[in-house]
Amino acid sequence: MFAKISLIILSIFLVTCNDTIELPDCSTTICTLNFVTITVRVKDASGEAVILDNYQVIDSKTGENLATNFNGEEYEYSKKQGVYPILSDANRSQYQNKSATLTFKGHINNEEVINEAYEVSADCCHVSLITGNTEITLD
Question: Which superkingdom, per the lineage (predicted)?
């Protein structure tokens, strides 16, 4: 009799146990008005800014190049400072409530001089950097 009762209780427990993770409802979340951009600073051994001929930010899962989203006057100014955006809040919904691996590839004279991996994520409001080197020094 005890075995039957234990089996019934265990069955009820297993049926009611839900192993799916419930994602937060972002529709009621209050966010700051800050616009977050994760950047990488590239410099040479003497500390001078390195201007890359071009760069890519590749999402390892989709193969998408996110660097095409960055352009305009602000980007050109940042590039002269050796600062390159890899992800911004403009991509927040794409990475919301999950993490992703991005690869930053930089080129000078058609030669790849940088190949760095970054783990990123986003919540209801902003993108964030989990791991990755935000200061790269080229020799």
Answer: Bacteria
